[in-house]
Amino acid sequence: PSFLQSDFSKITRSLEQKNHSVSLHPFINFRGQILVGEFLFPIQKFSFRQKANFVFIENFPTNSFPKIEIVLERSGSIFNVKEFKIHPSDNGVQGEILYTRLFFAIADMKKCSLHFKDIDFPPFNFGFSEIPLQDMKVILYRAKLFRKLGFIERVFEKTKINVPENITPNEAQQIEILFRGLTEGEFTNPSDSFVTIYNYKVSKSDLQNNFLFSKREFSLEFNEKFFILGQFFEVGKVVIRVEKASVANPRKIRNVKENEVIDELRLNVFDSQIRYTFEKYNNAERLSKNKQKLKRFRDLLQNEEPNFLVSLLDESLAEIDDKSAIETLEALLQYYDFPDRFSVLKPKLQKNQWKVPIALTYPKQEPILLADAFVDMRTGKVEMEISFDELLKKGKKKAKEVFSIA
Asked: What is the DSSP string of 297-325?
């Protein structure tokens, strides 16, 4: 996603001018403070500049607090708010955390006020309408991403991440993998239905098991540093396992030999799952230390922001949607060689998982429900109501009973 400034201009109501004892000069610097709910915005330097019927107000942030820019237009005794914008004041992770905290404070309270600290002038009170849902979703994702990066910075104390204007989906996925590696050691993460393994070395076992044309487990390990957002992270050896996969481009590499390195091995991942083991952190002592660090980080956030922002640390950056849930079940049916008449129906969301019906379908016939599968929104892990063997037997029995088909 592209992360830009938040523009409240179109949802800000007019600001009524009040009587005051001191006239403001065309340009002044003053100490001021923005108050919005429980958000603790420190007293900072502001500038107030008046030109014709316009008033321009901006702060000069310290300690990574957000930048605020306000433009007012006078119309009689009313100041119309032409612009009200906030955005991160720097490209650091802490600036992004504070920015999203202020955004949701404004979204929740629907009002804020600017208080003048060293001049005799009444506060400016701003009111806001409802923020569009899509804007809320974008900033919520952003809040989740940067709180996880905030914890990563705490583990790698000497590494400071410079946030680019754009963060790609692949970079977000790498952030999620590193965060879970530090806090879990070993875990399963959702993947695309196709993945590419680079520099895959062909083993004797691969050739003996006809790896180019079989469904099987693939694994590899690497000791290279994690590279995320322009920074290297030393994490030690990482083992990657793809348990249910097949080679997607076998004919292009069919003449490979033992110990030959395949530059790009493309795999069809039937269950959309990749298992990661961060060996350096997959032990009780390391995990205990990192979990203590995570708790301290949570406690710090808890003292400064609402629970729903803190709880974003528990949510995945790549949650499974209904389309992905369907594709995963369809691929698993293919993996286990189910006939085409076994179909995946439209899933329903239940708490944090997709309930996916599997049924027999025939032209001009109502689907015959056989069983439900449950796909975890966070991990993509599939839990079956009955096993795939039982599902196949049940389907064949139903087909024979209803349609006289063996």
From this structure: HHHHHHTTS-HHHHGGGGS-SS---HHHH
In whole angstroms, what is the distance from residue 279 CA to residue 261 CA?
24
CA distances from 115 to 17, 21, 35, 46, 363 (A): 14, 15, 8, 11, 70
Please return the burial class of 108, using the count of CB atoms within 10 Å of its CB with bins 0-12, 13-18 and 19+.
middle
Those residues with Cβ within 8 angstroms of residue 140's Cβ, 6 or more apart along the chain or in another chain: 312
Cα gap 30→47, rounded to integer Å: 6
What are 171's two structure tokens?
């970079």
Show the tokens assigned to 221: 């390990």
Q: 35: helix, coil or strand?
A: strand
Alpha carbon 355 to its chain centroid, in Å, reads: 22
Nearest to 41 by CA among 85, 119, 101, 120: 101
Euclidean distance between CA atoms 119 and 106, whole angstroms: 25
Q: What's 281's DSSP letter?
A: T
Q: Structure tokens of 192?
A: 């695309």
Residues 118, 122, 123, 126: is their CA dihedral positive or negative?
Answer: negative
3-class DSSP assignment, residue 194: strand
Q: DSSP 3-state assignment of 16?
A: strand
The dihedral formed by the CA atoms of 33, 73, 55 and 6, expressed in degrees to the nearest 10: 50
Exposure of 180 by Cβ count < 10 A (0-12 exposed, 13-18 middle, 19+ buried)? buried
Q: Check: CB of residue 50 under 8 Å from CB of residue 121.
A: no
Per-residue pLDDT of 353-399, as tens digits, reads 999 999 999 888 899 999 999 999 988 899 999 999 999 999 999 98
Contact 386, 371 (CB under 8 A): yes
Beta bridge partners of 348: 355
Measured CA to CA, the distance from residue 65 to residue 195 in angstroms comes to 40
From 331, 338, 320, 316, select the one nearest 374 (Cα to Cα): 320
> What is the pTM assigned to this prediction?
0.84
pLDDT tens-digit series, residues 95-131: 999 999 999 999 999 999 999 998 888 888 888 888 8
Residues 278/185, Cβ–Cβ less than 8 Å: yes
